[in-house]
User: Which sequence fits this backbone?
């Protein structure tokens, strides 16, 4: 090991300019009441131009008297912990890590301070930039030493965790306190989240808490930018860019060499919407972590995948399920379930248990029904057998519910009384809209016999009247498809319901406005189209897009009816149908109990995620 061409191990320390005595003598004087050398020592340690050799000499002296560094010397230790050790020579880093190990072993009172020092380096350092007297500083994104500095931070954390077994208990609150504000730059958030997930790899007991922390922050971003808002901003940016290019072509068409052509946002992976850009960046990091944790040398590690699934489902129950109108964060579980059919089936079984359990709040049961229907419709990795198995659970449950209500005093349309029932009906209708082709493919006769055996007509015709409260786009498309195959004739009920719908009158500054509530269930489909650019590359191959039915399948009149209700987008027949409501985050304790019946395998811990460059 060499410093400036010298053999570090076989030569005496370099002579450095320093004042006062050594650390041991300085501590002795301080104990007797003489603080002059003590203050001088702190001043020299805080010198911004301190050299590597000086740092090494000081640290060696501190290591020799570490047992004397009690809480009385708290201020001195804080100065030592602020030494600029990251990015220094290997000798400095090695000596500093040795000092940390000795300090936390001999003086556990400094454990929190050491952990805070390490975690504070999980983001790029701020660069002071002022414009017009206003500080607009954010982060130094161009520091090429960041990966090395982060590696050294994690090396320090691992050493501390090795010497102090209770490190994890003190570390999690510090990780939470230091999480950057969600309006920080994408780079700052990316670095911090990446480092949190690295901690979760070598301290696995913290993984669930780390995932909960990250997903809670991502949900705040997710609910603050609706899908429609993001698409509008991106589309406007593309149109403005195209308009600018056309104007430039008109100005400079006489001389092509001076024509400055800007890159179009449509051709880049950067989101114009600032919140969407931050969320996209974090989704890329989270999905990469999920992939690397579940695969070892390119092969799926079943046991590690099951463990990660359990952690994510717990976070789903606590954070994602109670959050209304989140658009993208739930795709982390969608992506994980694509790795193995048993995971997808376990997730569906979990949602089914939530839906049918009367011990859970109705709002969570309704949300579980929405997730179940949306997952069945959109996950193209689900085979028809799984879809039919879920319908065989949902539809009989609906019939049993009707049996229990038809003869009672509550057999009428009321969302507050029958919310889970209506959401389960909508989940069945939505699933059949997307999956009826695959059910009928291969053997039309058997497929029709199966659909007829569901007895959908009884559900549609019951006194609870589910067609009245389901989204009009879902109702009309379901009616069109079931009419095509002569399963149910819904239009009489739809027309009757439309005559009985009372308009909602509300006053505004511009005068009275009369409208009809087309979404009385306040429902949303969690796996509607994914609009984040970079992370969508992992989602698109797994996603079932909406295919507009041909006139040969659904008659023209019916198709026009659906288009009038749904704004007829080429990607999703629900576009414009579900109102863009403000997302609401909530936390409700959930229970999880699911068993995966999969063959076990043993593999080494995943390390690919640790090696991802910044």
Assistant:
């Amino acid at each position: 090991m060499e410093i400036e061409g010298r053999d570090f191990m076989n030569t005496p320390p370099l002579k450095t300019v320093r004042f006062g005595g050594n650390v041991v003598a300085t501590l002795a004087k301080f104990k007797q009441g003489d603080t002059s050398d003590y203050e001088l020592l702190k001043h020299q340690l805080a010198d911004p131009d301190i050299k590597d050799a000086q740092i090494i000499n000081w640290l060696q002296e501190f290591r020799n008297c570490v047992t004397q560094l009690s809480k009385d010397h708290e201020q001195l230790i804080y100065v030592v912990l602020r030494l600029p050790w990251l990015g220094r020579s290997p000798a400095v880093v090695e000596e500093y890590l040795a000092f940390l190990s000795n300090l936390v072993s001999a003086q556990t009172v400094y454990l929190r301070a050491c952990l805070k020092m390490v975690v504070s380096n999980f983001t790029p350092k701020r660069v002071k930039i002022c414009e017009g007297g206003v500080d607009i500083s954010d982060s130094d994104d161009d520091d090429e030493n960041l990966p090395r500095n982060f590696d050294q931070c994690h090396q320090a954390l691992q050493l501390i965790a090795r010497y102090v077994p209770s490190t994890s208990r003190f570390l999690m609150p510090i990780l939470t306190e230091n999480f950057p504000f969600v309006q920080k730059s994408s780079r700052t958030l990316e670095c911090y989240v990446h480092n949190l997930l690295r901690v979760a790899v070598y301290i696995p007991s913290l993984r669930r808490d780390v995932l909960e922390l990250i997903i809670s922050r991502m949900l705040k971003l997710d609910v603050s930018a609706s899908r429609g808002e993001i698409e509008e901003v991106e589309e406007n940016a593309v149109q403005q860019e195209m308009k600018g290019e056309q104007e430039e072509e008109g100005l400079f068409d006489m001389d092509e060499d001076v024509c400055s052509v800007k890159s179009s946002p449509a051709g880049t992976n950067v989101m114009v919407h600032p919140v969407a850009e931050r969320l996209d960046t974090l989704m890329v990091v989270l999905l990469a972590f999920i992939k690397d944790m579940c695969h070892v040398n390119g092969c799926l590690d079943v046991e590690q995948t099951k463990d990660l699934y359990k952690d994510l489902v717990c976070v789903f129950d606590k954070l994602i399920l109670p959050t209304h109108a989140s658009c993208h964060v739930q795709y982390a579980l969608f992506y994980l379930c694509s790795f193995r059919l048993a995971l997808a089936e376990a997730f569906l079984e979990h949602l089914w248990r939530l839906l049918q359990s009367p011990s859970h709040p109705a709002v969570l049961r309704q949300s579980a029904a929405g997730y179940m229907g949306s997952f069945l419709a959109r996950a193209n990795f689900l085979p028809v057998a799984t879809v039919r198995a879920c319908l065989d659970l949902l539809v009989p449950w609906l019939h049993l519910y009707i049996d229990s209500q038809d003869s009672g005093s509550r057999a009428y349309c009321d969302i507050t009384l029958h919310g889970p029932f209506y959401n389960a009906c909508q989940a069945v209708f939505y699933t059949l809209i997307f999956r009826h082709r695959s059910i009928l493919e291969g053997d039309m006769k058997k497929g029709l016999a199966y659909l007829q055996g569901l007895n959908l007509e009884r559900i549609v015709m019951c006194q609870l009247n589910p067609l009245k409260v389901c989204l009009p786009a879902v109702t009309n498309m379901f009616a069109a498809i079931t009419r095509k195959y002569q399963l149910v004739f819904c239009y009489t009920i739809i027309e009757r319901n439309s005559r009985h719908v009372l308009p909602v009158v509300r006053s505004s500054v511009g005068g009275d406005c009369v409208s009809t509530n087309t979404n009385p269930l306040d429902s949303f489909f969690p796996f509607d189209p994914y609009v984040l650019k970079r992370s969508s590359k992992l989602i698109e191959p797994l996603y079932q897009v909406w295919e507009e039915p041909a006139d040969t399948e659904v008659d023209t009149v019916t198709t026009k009816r659906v288009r009038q209700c749904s704004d007829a987008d080429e990607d999703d027949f629900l576009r414009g149908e579900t109102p863009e409501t403000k997302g609401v985050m909530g936390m409700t304790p959930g229970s999880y109990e699911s068993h995966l019946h999969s063959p076990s395998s043993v593999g080494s811990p995943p390390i690919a995620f640790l090696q991802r460059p910044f």
About this structure: Strands lie at 2-3, 6-7, 130-131, 134-135, 295-296, 299-300, 504-508, 511-515. Residues 97 and 528 are 49 Å apart (CA to CA).
